[in-house]
Amino acid sequence: MGFIREPEGVDFVIQGKPLTEKQKKELSAFIKADKEKNQREKRKTKSVVKTKKIFSV
Question: 6: which residues sit within 8 A by CB, 6+ positions away?
Answer without folding.
Answer: 12
